[in-house]
Amino acid sequence: MIVPSGDMAVCRRAHEVLEAYLGTCVGVALWDREAGVGGLFHALLAEPLMSGSVPAEPLRYASTGLPLFLEALEEKGAKPSRLEAAVAGGAIVGPGHDVHLDLQIGARTLERVELFLKATRIPVVLSETGGTFTCCLRLHCHNWTPEIIPVGTHFFRPEGPPNHCRPSRESLEKAIKDVKPIPQTAFKILALLRSETYQMGEISREIRLDQVLAAKVLALCNSPVYGAPEKIDSLDRALVFLGEKRILQMALQVFLSGVFPSRVGGYSLCKGGLFQHAVSTALGAEFIARRLGMPQGKAYTYGLLHDIGKIVLDQLVAESAPLFYRKALHGDRPLKDIEKELFGMDHTQVGALLVQHWNLPADMADVISGHHRSNLNGEHATPQDVALITVADFITNRFLAGSQLERLDPRPVIPALRRCGLSSEVLEKMIADMPLGLMRQQASGF
């Protein structure tokens, strides 16, 4: 059972494994062997920004969530004097750069967790905190054994060919051309989303042209994620219930879900992991754009396609394993630098070439190629557009971890925040307000 950020799970002894995927978030496992009770808490942030206030979602914060977690364990029969703890997460943003000290959100959350455990005299028997990479905290409930492992280690195999042959430019270009093309209807839907001047009849007409698309959109509308009070059996009713923008987003997601790889492996740490990260980032970018008064439709499409180059490089990872995983899982080098070393190009460069091959607008290529660069300038996209996706990608990688293999270069984050006019305090407030649970549900609904 996966415990998402801002949540907890408590269970009695059973053949259950509780898991939390942790980037900047902090996970705390507590268990009482004698009572046969344990659980896992996944803290998003340290404490509410307004000191003394009662947050609407107390489990998001270590300061308010940990007392509730302890109370839930006691209700099941646990005693604080018998509890043991395992703590993981709190990844630092970058490997020791002073310029990033105001972004060390995880360190503040970890400090709050440590203060609570010290005050309650709960001993920590296993701890793996800090670092720069995502880890998984597991609690095996049948014998109350905690485990902390870096994500992606189940892909790593020490055996394999010792030599790696970097692909030629020609083979990369062929891989780009081999990517499943997007249908013409998808281009029209993308253009409608970006224009933000669409009409309900126009949307309904475009979706009805593709019967498979229409059926999938209706199926999504009727999924528990959207909570329709009764069955939605027509596009017109779907448009009224969810609105034109959300239906357009669904339609575009349906098309792109067939382009992204669905298997586990490569960059994906779970089934459809790359696509889940793309949808999460799109929703996060839309949220930030709304807060900043920027065009939300463009932000959503930028977020959905920002890592599109990984679907090309994903085809090459198998040939480079285990070297790719060894380099990705050890050390502090950004993943894009490892890509460039092994493949000759990183995913931002390949992604820009792919959208150019698809004849998508030039500003999309600028955002894709620039979202990991400290220089935010683009020839066709504004620096604010590039910065917005840099920030959205940072948030989803750090606070919705576990879907894809990634090690971000932290250096572009500070200039991106400045370009968006965001201080570290405002960033924390934005993260606290983001509907991360809903974003996760919508991203995994395909």
Automatic annotation (TrEMBL):
<dbReference type="Pfam" id="PF08668">
    <property type="entry name" value="HDOD"/>
</dbReference>
<dbReference type="InterPro" id="IPR006675">
    <property type="entry name" value="HDIG_dom"/>
</dbReference>
<feature type="domain" description="HDOD">
    <location>
        <begin position="179"/>
        <end position="374"/>
    </location>
</feature>
<dbReference type="InterPro" id="IPR013976">
    <property type="entry name" value="HDOD"/>
</dbReference>
<keyword id="KW-0378">Hydrolase</keyword>
<dbReference type="GO" id="GO:0016740">
    <property type="term" value="F:transferase activity"/>
</dbReference>
<protein>
    <submittedName>
        <fullName>Putative nucleotidyltransferase with HDIG domain</fullName>
    </submittedName>
</protein>
<keyword id="KW-0808">Transferase</keyword>
<dbReference type="InterPro" id="IPR003607">
    <property type="entry name" value="HD/PDEase_dom"/>
</dbReference>
<dbReference type="InterPro" id="IPR005659">
    <property type="entry name" value="Chemorcpt_Glu_NH3ase_CheD"/>
</dbReference>
<dbReference type="InterPro" id="IPR011324">
    <property type="entry name" value="Cytotoxic_necrot_fac-like_cat"/>
</dbReference>
<dbReference type="GO" id="GO:0050568">
    <property type="term" value="F:protein-glutamine glutaminase activity"/>
</dbReference>
<dbReference type="InterPro" id="IPR052340">
    <property type="entry name" value="RNase_Y/CdgJ"/>
</dbReference>
<dbReference type="InterPro" id="IPR038592">
    <property type="entry name" value="CheD-like_sf"/>
</dbReference>
<dbReference type="Pfam" id="PF03975">
    <property type="entry name" value="CheD"/>
</dbReference>
<dbReference type="GO" id="GO:0006935">
    <property type="term" value="P:chemotaxis"/>
</dbReference>
<keyword id="KW-0145">Chemotaxis</keyword>
